[in-house]
């Protein structure tokens, strides 16, 4: 059971939900301050105004897919030394393969930077970033910022935020994080999960109920209630990490003796603080979950919010296979030759030898091709131990079924080895690998064409598993909990629920976890507070600086490079993951992959417009005039020499992207910066899927327009004329009047674009052309 309670709600004594009208005696302003979120945000706010926050963080984390660009931005903006503990992990480019900067050039870059500026360097294969942050840095009551969207340390009593690179660069140079006070929504938990239900099942129940209706978008989720105390720390962390997929901003949980023990196990008892909401806490809304009723779930392709009870999918495979194939038609709108076929994977089945003690009454099942358990959401001690118990008790070999398991850190790996669980898994045929986020973003275990993969990882966005639709290849990934993945793997790779092996899970006794701190002491470089400014940063030949970016011009003439009418455009679609990681230290190279899998024509369209801007900047009026010529449609004669001369000085040329709801998913700044490198100067959308993507656009100097009507009249190749746009931004205009000019330059029509919620600091960045430019202006450079 999950219920959504809209509007202000009171939670009394950490358990009882009550309407505001039932308790007129309660001071609502005081009750708002009784939430954990308010207490933590207030302690970190430096604005003096709780409606407009300016946050100073306690810790920071970056990783090898993002840290080069972040550090280069910070250095260009005046970085001298890190003002807080700053962790550099290497959990994405672990393979150090040949080509681009996926080799160890990028790791040596980070290692020398940690010496120079006083950072903490975690070598490859030691830990995924969030596990290291949980184990070694996060304290109850603090706030961290990390360059990854799955930054969730709420279970330890922390309100932490995943953001794009420019926001991390700001924090590196001591700037404050600006945000309006967010909605705070309680997740009120009752009861306790069944033994065969795992954290992903609870998470998918929450995501399925809240993502598409935007119920918790950009809110802080506050997990409270007696149900919290029924779950282990690993279980809580597994839910917490996945809250990102609901589109919330952050999370926080009340703390208890389970959390206290976690800090003690990790040799940091001083960092624990008991945290609980007040006796009468006011929330903007409440999500109520009865954990007793949660059942094994599956998120079908191509989004975590496509959540269904696993029992239903197993019972009606044809229905759900057809549903996935219908979703694929929408998802691959610009690659219509892609046709995943899930129906061909439905095969007859009988419970031969009573493999399943509680088998569902079905005579056919979906055959799965591959499984993976990996990363910050899944690679926990308890998740992997549960898999080992299924392997041991089922007494079934894997055969040729590909099953890959990645513990989230070396301490977890060592402990599983110590108790013999890893040996048991490997004997049964499980492929055990080191701490690496590869399966989460298509850098390892990429399935074959038309494969159906089940994963306990963070996302199942289109092609995130590594397939390339532009080359005629597609695979489909579904999200499931480790327990049901294990049940499937040891039932011959046929889709199976952990509930069908409930007798195994009912008898699991999880061993007490022991943490060996020597693993990190012997290999991690901790230079915090010990900066060595004389150190030279080691660059590889493929590591390139950001290109120079010009300030916002008086007017803009933009050509529409892509129009995407799919409901949500993820950051994985804006800039693909996987192989592009090898170019993330080279902004020119990585930009070539922009929208490659969603709209292969975007890059050539954007570059065609950019060529005219390069001509303008080079003083080549004859070439620029060809672009300006469409302004005849709005009464401007670019053929006239004096008019052309003025346009060359006052009117920038670029491209614009339209998508309905862009930016769901990753915090990667490249989703925006690659557009800017290609000459993109604006986005137009109904609204931005996440706050972090909008921030990335602004920080790279791209105008964040909105247009509320989903039936926008806009086509690729048309032009958007924005006269007086610099003055409009400077004046704080919330609406601008644009002209849309037809591709042949013969007709024009008016369009009103919104430019909402632009703060003073954002205005300054937009006018300067980028955050780097803005901060360099502050330094007089």
Mind explaining what this structure looks like?
The chain is α/β, with parallel strands linked by helices and 781 residues long. Helices cover 31% and strands 19% of the residues. It is built from 28 helices and 34 strands. The protein has a seven-stranded mixed β-sheet with strand order 17-16-24-23-20-21-22, sandwiched between helices. A seven-stranded mixed β-sheet has the order 31-30-28-26-32-33-34. Helix 8 links the parallel strand 12 and strand 13. The longest helix has 16 residues, at 602-617. 56% of the residues are buried. The mean pLDDT is 93.
Structure summarized in a few sentences:
The protein is α/β, with parallel strands linked by helices and 781 residues long.
> Segments where pLDDT lies below 50 for 5+ residues?
none
The overall pLDDT average reads 93
How would you describe the oligomerization state of the chains in this entry?
A: single chain
Q: How much beta, percentage-wise?
A: 15-25%
Give the % helix: 25-40%
Strand and helix map with partners:
Blueprint: E1 2-5, E2 9-12, E3 16-19, H1 28-32, H2 36-44, E4 52-55, E5 59-63, H3 67-76, E6 86-89, H4 105-117, E7 120-122, H5 129-136, E8 144-146, E9 161-162, H6 165-172, E10 177-180, E11 184-190, H7 199-210, E12 220-224, H8 233-242, E13 250-253, H9 257-265, E14 280-283, E15 285-290, E16 297-299, E17 307-309, H10 310-315, H11 317-331, E18 346-348, E19 364-366, E20 370-373, H12 381-394, E21 402-405, H13 410-418, H14 421-427, E22 431-432, H15 438-441, E23 452-456, E24 476-480, H16 482-489, H17 502-506, H18 518-521, E25 525-526, E26 555-564, E27 569-570, H19 571-574, H20 587-591, H21 602-617, H22 621-628, H23 641-650, E28 651-659, E29 662-664, H24 670-677, E30 680-685, H25 691-699, E31 703-706, E32 719-722, H26 725-730, E33 735-741, E34 748-754, H27 760-768, H28 771-778
Parallel strand pairs: 5-6, 5-8, 6-7, 8-9, 11-12, 11-15, 12-13, 20-21, 20-23, 21-22, 23-24, 26-28, 27-29, 28-30, 30-31
Antiparallel strand pairs: 1-15, 2-3, 2-14, 4-10, 7-25, 16-17, 16-24, 18-19, 26-32, 32-33, 33-34
Helix pairs in contact: 3-6, 7-8, 12-14, 12-16, 21-22, 22-23, 27-28
């Amino acid at each position: 059971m999950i219920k959504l309670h809209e509007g202000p709600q009171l939670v009394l004594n950490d358990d009882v939900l009550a309407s505001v009208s039932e308790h007129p005696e309660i001071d609502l302003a005081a009750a708002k301050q009784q939430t954990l979120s308010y207490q933590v945000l207030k302690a970190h706010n430096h604005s003096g105004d709780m409606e407009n926050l300016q946050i100073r963080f306690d810790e920071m984390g970056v990783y090898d897919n993002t840290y080069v660009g972040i550090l280069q931005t910070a250095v260009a903006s005046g970085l001298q030394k890190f003002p807080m503990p700053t962790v550099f992990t290497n959990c994405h480019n672990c393979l150090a393969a040949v080509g681009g900067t996926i080799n160890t050039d990028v790791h040596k870059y980070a290692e020398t930077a940690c010496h120079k500026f006083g950072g903490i360097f975690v070598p490859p294969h030691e830990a995924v970033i969030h596990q290291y942050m949980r184990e070694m840095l996060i304290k109850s009551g603090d706030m961290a910022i990390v360059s990854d969207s799955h930054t969730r340390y709420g279970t330890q009593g922390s309100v932490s935020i995943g953001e794009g690179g420019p926001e991390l660069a700001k924090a590196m140079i001591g700037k404050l994080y600006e945000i309006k006070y967010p909605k705070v929504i309680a997740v009120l938990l009752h009861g306790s999960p069944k033994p065969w239900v795992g954290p992903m099942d609870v998470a998918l129940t929450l995501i399925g109920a809240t993502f598409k209706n935007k119920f918790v978008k950009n809110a802080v989720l506050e997990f409270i209630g007696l149900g919290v105390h029924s779950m282990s720390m690993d279980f809580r962390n597994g839910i917490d990490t996945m809250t990102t997929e609901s589109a919330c901003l952050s999370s926080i949980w009340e703390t208890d003796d389970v959390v206290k023990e976690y800090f003690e196990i990790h040799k940091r008892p001083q960092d624990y603080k008991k945290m609980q909401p007040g006796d009468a806490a006011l929330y903007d809304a409440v999500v109520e979950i009865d954990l007793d009723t949660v059942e094994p779930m599956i998120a079908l392709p191509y989004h975590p919010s496509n959540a269904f009870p696993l029992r239903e999918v197993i019972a009606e495979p044809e229905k759900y296979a057809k549903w996935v194939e219908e979703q694929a038609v929408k998802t691959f709108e610009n690659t219509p030759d892609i046709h995943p076929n899930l129906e061909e994977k439905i095969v007859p089945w009988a419970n031969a030898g009573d493999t399943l003690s509680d088998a569902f009454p079905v005579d056919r099942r979906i055959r799965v091709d591959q499984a993976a358990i990996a990363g910050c959401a899944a690679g926990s001690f308890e998740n992997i131990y549960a898999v080992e118990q299924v392997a041991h008790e089922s007494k079934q070999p894997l055969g040729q079924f590909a099953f890959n398991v990645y513990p989230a850190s070396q301490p977890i790996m060592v402990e599983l080895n110590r108790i013999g669980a890893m040996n048991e898994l490997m004997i049964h045929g499980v492929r055990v690998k080191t701490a690496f986020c590869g399966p989460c973003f298509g850098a390892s275990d990429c399935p074959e064409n038309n494969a159906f993969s089940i994963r306990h990882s963070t996302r199942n966005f289109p092609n995130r598993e590594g397939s390339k639709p532009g080359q005629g290849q597609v695979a489909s990934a579904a999200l499931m909990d480790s327990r049901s993945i294990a049940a499937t793997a040891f039932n011959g790779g046929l889709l199976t629920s952990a509930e069908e092996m409930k007798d195994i899970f009912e008898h699991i006794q999880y061993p007490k976890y022991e943490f060996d701190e020597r693993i990190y002491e012997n290999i991690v470089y901790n230079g915090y507070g010990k900066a060595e400014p004389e150190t030279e940063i080691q660059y590889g030949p493929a590591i390139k600086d950001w290109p120079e970016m010009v300030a916002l011009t008086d007017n803009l003439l933009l050509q529409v490079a892509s129009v995407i009418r799919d409901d949500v455009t993820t950051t994985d679609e804006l800039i693909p993951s996987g192989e592009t990681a090898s170019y993330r230290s080279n902004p020119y190279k990585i930009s070539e992959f922009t929208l490659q899998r969603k709209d292969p024509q975007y890059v050539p369209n954007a570059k065609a417009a950019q060529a005219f801007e390069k001509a303008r900047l080079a003083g080549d009026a004859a070439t620029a005039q060809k672009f300006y010529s469409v302004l005849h449609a709005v009464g401007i004669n670019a053929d006239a020499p004096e008019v052309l001369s003025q346009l060359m000085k006052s009117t920038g040329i670029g491209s614009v992207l339209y998508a309905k709801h862009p930016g769901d998913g990753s915090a990667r700044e490249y989703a925006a910066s690659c557009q800017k490198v290609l000459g993109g100067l604006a986005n137009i959308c109904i609204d931005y899927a996440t706050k972090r993507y909008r921030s990335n656009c602004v920080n790279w100097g791209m105008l964040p327009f909105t247009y509320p009507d989903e039936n926008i009249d806009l086509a690729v190749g048309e032009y958007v004329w924005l006269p007086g746009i610099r003055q409009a931004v400077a004046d704080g205009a919330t609406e601008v009047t644009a002209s849309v000019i037809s591709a042949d330059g013969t007709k024009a029509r008016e369009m009103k674009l919104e430019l909402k919620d632009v703060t003073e600091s954002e205005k300054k960045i937009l006018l300067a052309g980028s955050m780097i430019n803005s901060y360099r202006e502050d330094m007089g450079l």
